[in-house]
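Entry:
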Amino acid sequence: MEDETTALEGGQRWDPAKVGAHWQQELERAQRYFKSWHDRCVKIEKIYLDQQSDQTSAAKRHFPMLWANTAVLQPAVYARVPQPVVERRFKDAEPVARIASELVERNLAYAGDEADLDSIMRAVRDDFLLCARGTVWLRYEADFEPLDMDVEPSDPPAAGLSGEMAGATLETIADERVCIDYVHWSDFLHSPARRWKDVTWVARRVPMTDEEMEKRFGREAMVSGAAQAAGSRKGESQAERAENEGKTHVWEIWCKSENYTVWIADGSPLALEVSEPPLDLTHFWPCPRPAYGTMSTSSLVPVPDYVYYQQQCDEIDLLTRRINKLTDQLRLKVFYPSGDGAISPAIEKAMRPENDMVMVPIPEWAAFTDKGGSKAVVTLPIDEVQKVIVACMAARKQLIEDVYQITGISDIVRGDTQASETATAQRIKSQWGSIRIRDRQAELARFARDIIRLAGEIICDQFQPETLMLVSGIRLPTMAEKQQVEMQMQQMQMAAQQAAMRAQQMGQPAQAPPAPPELPPQLQQMMGQPTIDEVVQLLRNDSIRGFQIDIETDSTIEPDEDGEKQRRMEFVQMVGGFMQQAGAMAQQNPLLVPVMVETLLFAARGFRAGRQLESMLEQVGAQLSEAARAPKPEPQPSPAEMLKLKTAEVKAGAEQRKAELGVAQAEIEHRATLEQARGEAAAQALQQFQAQPAYQ
């Protein structure tokens, strides 16, 4: 494939004949590799569906051991749809990672509901139990439609998009979705390998009508590729031929070693399409590692469980048919002499099954009594037949017990127990009797987790911000909206400052600087949230993606309601006891509040119910820590002390005013004395002047 790869990198057209011939050989090689497993699975599926080709009714009698075991294991290994859980990788208070994880979790829950993940997982479970392998295939689809013409060009562009993409978004909107397709065990192939990490290509077979092929590949490619694939529309059975009527099997191949995808019709030497992978996934494959049953380390060819107890099932069927035949022999067979005149008709009339009570007259009574009366009638002995039936049933029961020993299906799993057993014995059986089923439960849980992770990766890489917010119901502001609000706040603050400056220039008394304008509660909440641009940037960047995708523990099996209630009660008791002790310690030493908050969060994260309250606990803890770091206010005096203080203040004020009045009176008296002294001095000076001779 080196020439083809070079042609792809150089942008040249691929040669459909070379590519088609190469991949037809690869598909045939993989089909030969899995042929023995495929033939086994076909036989097992016929036995499970009771579609064996035996014609006689006696040969059809069998014990449905495979169906019974599968029916017991089905709800034990998978019973409920997996619930996605997206958690922060590090349990710190990072608002962007928290919002991003909540967005992705809600989108995953919606994608699972839309794709009917529960029915897909049940189909995979059945393939897993019968054929020891089940898988799915994930796709990304988006439908673009023109927007209405009433969109304002001044609307802010979509977050996380470039200018060209933002302009395109104003013209089109996308209906995005993650499609999860169930793949039948016979429609999935991969390259022969010992381990899944060594697989170089995977393929799935898709039946397509002529209209679907023309819409997908075009008329020319459809005619050139499907004209030579007419044999792919046939089937082994009449039902398969009816299902394939008017359809062509097309293989979708993802080649990891060459980094491209190929579409080719089954049996056609020409490739319908060769292109780069439509999804850039971490592990390249659009499907998780299949849910495998029993396997060895030498190959990826699984072994169905039925193979290990097939011989016991054959013997059980043989004994069942034998018991059925012997049961037919449990009939009352009577022998009586014929040709005895009136005696034979009388015996025959008496032995008719519809006669409950019969009185039969016998004309030749002497002849009847000479033959011994009742000895004239002889029955076939059936005691020996009954003993053989009992022995066959005992042997079949032992074989059934052997099957349970082989499969590991205990009596507790089947709901079969004895009243004489103690509760401790039943608990021990429940704990250790299902230990071999836990591996199957874990494998299906791992498979469901891989599906959720693949869907989450597609959502993070492909979904537009509008789709993320629309599906999750979380409305986040864009960077443009946040900047616009900040600009409005700055403008309002600048206007207030300018008004204060104009008032000061006009001679008005100076006022305190204006307080920042208060925003409406909705805008305040928006300003406190991270923007959708930051969230999308975190989702797009794999290297800094701050969360991990998983499923709830035991979410795929039937829950233990009593155990769940017990865990919730333990959580409530833990929180209540801790809060009571922490309150007393916080009053004595407020510096320990942050330590106690982190301890409470550490304990709450260990409970399933604690995850729902984690955000609330963090908010309350932050408030408590901030209150503990704040300066402690001075204690307020009691009403009596306040009255004493007020009285003392009044007395002090009165004394101060009295002292001030005394100082003023003294100053007045001093000034009067000065004025009197000045008057006396002036009068004395006048007298002296008049006493002089010149004046006289």
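The longest strand covers residues 133-146.
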